[in-house]
Amino acid sequence: MTNTSVHLGIRSKVTGIEDIEVDKTVGFQIISTDDIDDLGVPEIIHRIRKRIGDSPVYLSIDIDVIDCGLAPGTGTPEAGGWTTRETKRILRGLTGLNWVGADVVEVSPAYDHAEVTGIAAADLVHDCLSMFLSSTPPKAATSWAPSRDEL
Hints:
Pfam families: Arginase. It is built from five helices and four strands; from the N terminus they run E-H-E-H-H-E-H-E-H. By secondary structure, the protein is an alpha/beta fold. The strands form two sheets. It has a two-stranded parallel sheet with strand order 1-2. Strands 3-4 form a two-stranded parallel sheet.
C-alpha cells in the first residue's frame, strides 16, 4: 500500500527534531505553515491531491493550524499559523476526493473568548460536510443582504 498521508501546517517551537523524523519515517508528506508563503495555496492543493490520488481520505483538522490570533481557543496556541481564509481555501480545493470522514479537534471553549474559535471550527465543519455532498467546491458568498431588516 502506498502511503498517502500528509501532515499540514507544521510549526512548533516545542516540537523536537525527533517528531519530524518520526513523520518522515512513517512516510508522511510534510507541508509546513511557511509553505503557504513559499508555494502558495494552489501549489499546496496540487501537492495534496497528487499525493492522495484516489485513496480514501480521512481529514483531521487540528484547530491550532490557524494562527492563535484568529483561533485562540485551543490548548496549544502558537503564533504563525494559517489564516482561516487560507485554511478554508485549501480545504475547498480538496473537493471531489474520496472522502470517508473528517473531524475538527483541539477546540477549547474555556480559552475561546468571544467564540471566535468555535465559529471558525463550525465553519470548517460546514465546508467539510459540503464537500462530502458535492464534486465541485463550495463558493464563498460574495454578498449577503437580509430580506428584511429586523432592527
